[in-house]
Task: structure prediction
Amino acid sequence: MALQPLNSSLPPTIEWRDDTLYLLDQTRLPRECVVETADSVEAVWRAIHELRVRGAPAIGVAAAYGLCVAMKHERQASREAFLARLEHHAAYLDSARPTAVNLHWALERMLSHARGIAAQTGAAIYDALVAEAMRIHREDVELCARIGEHGRALIAPGSGVLTHCNAGALATTGIGTATAPLYCAHRDGESFRVYADETRPLLQGARLTAYELQQAGLDVTLITDSMAPTLMAQGLIDLVIVGTDRVAANGDVANKIGTLGVAIAAKHFGIPFYVACPSSTLDLRTACGVDIVIEERGADEVAQFAGRRIAPEGIQVRNPAFDVTPHALVTGIVTELGIVRAPFEANLAALFAKGEAV
Ligand code: MRU
Result:
């Protein structure tokens, strides 16, 4: 059965149509559903930087199309000039956000695809780039579905599942990563309840996860981040499943700020803590979590609430957008190739060595 994660009235997260990139503005959801045209590479950079398109896999797909947007007007260039401009735009897009490795991964894949095209004209390389971006997009949809099937068995009848941030359909172009097993279980008629952390400061859990799961007809309950340990203590949570922006070679996991606290609480209460991601989020070139660059965002996101200042003027603010959960707290990593468990360093390397990982 085809999975229909979102209300069909909601447009796709990302769409490429008639050589034009359309992005659903996630900062306005769920109050307004606005699709914007990203008609310059600067517009794509801003959309990623300002979280109008967000979530690691979606950022990768948007960046791949972003290069097409950038190169659309350079089709008259010679091969050398075209490739030089392409590299320039890729470096620019790569600077939009530092933590999600999918951004760099997608841009690298686009660059290496372009370099491998024998054609001598910019126009021919452009066509090949568009085809590759569409392939990355299609693969994302398929990878989410496969993650869902692998993670499906984790959702026991009658269980309570906690998730943090939005690793859902809105964070991808498919059925999400952390949400994919939930959508599969729901498709199968399984009865279970999802608890969504609101996810301060930008409320991706409240605005996006609660919204998309509700639209899809799942049993979802919204909580504030600080309520999660209490629900665990009350026996309401049987499983935690979250997404990730980058997994280091040793299995350390970077994800939305607050994930670490959830993982520590889960360990304390003996609750399995799973991470779901496509293999493009596994970064074996980064040895461990301390090497992951954590994005630090502006003070207003913390000092304001819904556009109104809540903290005293002049207060010092910290706003790391992500944290790193040590692999010792991770029960398993659900990928499109199956579930990887400890010892993570050896088992993640084996996953890539099979040559099957993206
Ligand atoms: O800042 P965001 O909203 O881009 O953060 C998103 C997350 O932390 C997600 O959990 C992660 O990117 C995985 S999305 C499948």
